[in-house]
From TrEMBL:
Coiled-coil annotated residue ranges, if any: none
Name the UniProt record assigns to this protein: Aldehyde dehydrogenase domain-containing protein
Swiss-Prot/TrEMBL keywords: Oxidoreductase
Single GO MF annotation: oxidoreductase activity, acting on the aldehyde or oxo group of donors, NAD or NADP as acceptor
Amino acid sequence: MAGEFTIPENLNGGLFFFGGIRRTVCGINTFPVFEPRTGQQLMQCPCADAALVDLVIGQAFTAQRAWAAKSPFERQNSGRFAYTRREPFGVVGCIGAWNYPFQTCCWKVAPALAAGNAVIYKPSPFAPASPVLLAELLKAAGLPDGLFNVLQGEAATGEMICTNQDIAKVSFTGSLPTGMKVQKACAEPKRIKPVTLELGGKSALIIFDDADMKTAVEAAMLANFLNQGEVCTNATRVFVQKYIFDEFQNLLLAEMERKLIVGDPLDERTTVGATINEQHLQKVCGYVNRAVQQGAQLLCGGIRVHPTNVEEGFYFKPALLTGLNDEMEIVREEVFGAVCLLLPFVNEKEAIERANKSDYGLAAGICTKSLSRAHRVAAQLQAGTIYVNTYNDTEVHIPFGGYKNSGYGRENCVECLHSFTQLKSVYVNIGNEQNINANKEVIDIE
């Protein structure tokens, strides 16, 4: 037998709640409330009239203005609040690379100075001049003396900067082996320093069989031959779906022959200039030679050349190779030269797995007409930057950096600015209302 339902005692103290307490309001109309279980009338509920509505809204308006004036921490803990502030590190050390010497310098120095730091900048010994020109530009723009300083040198100079106790943070762009040395030096001898590392890559460009061929070829050209191939994001591993492999290979080879003109960089007709030095030229040629010895097929280039009207210099004819496997040295290691590797794949799953099979994770590219596939694959690629139907785009408002051994931290955007600051948390007990009224200093702090 069902029991009888009664109104809970905690509802007997009034059905209005305003001004911080439950209230019973008399002299207003009521309306019946029925119990669905029995169909019997449960109560007569009071009905707010216009005067009561205006009264409660007015009280809420007054309360809200005082509430909004408080910080979230004040709202949860009366008489106290906390905040954070970003402060500069002090003097930071920045070590640049040789492939984009002026741009790399700007990427590091601008946010470091904007955050309130002084900068000690060491350029690469292979490209030392342009940071000095930037220093003169900053001087002319009104930057106070002593805030941007350029120190030339080799590895020993960089190590001295990293280990100096007055250097509070280091930002480095360069190779993985050198980056590991920088990281180690910044933990010695007595002061651990935060480090931003923008290191190398062995990026992959995946070309699906639904890709626009012209777009895909353009992406592959940008991903391999920009700046003589001396770009850390370059996608030298070009995975091409097997159904279009031969067609793509022929189109890319024709485009290389048509557009890649090796020569004096001061000649406007030149599209591929000199490599940085003799040692690096020999390194790039060595990778190609060993790959051929291991069974790779060299379709073009891969050798030192002497362009017309250039008697000396370090010139390399861009190479295109096929007949490769993922375990070859040239497929696994960063060459940092104009060497493009074509590798066939069957399906999406295989392409993603092979693209991610790398110690690096700086960038990756996707060529497809399917927007859903582009987003799906981008989400699975282990890289800090993903290019879709393009390659090597750079925007200063977009963060730049890598996964895995391609480093950590980001260049550009607000993330980079924040990386040149340290966070401070401040907790303040401002007392209760009586203390505030009695203590003018507390009011001034707020």
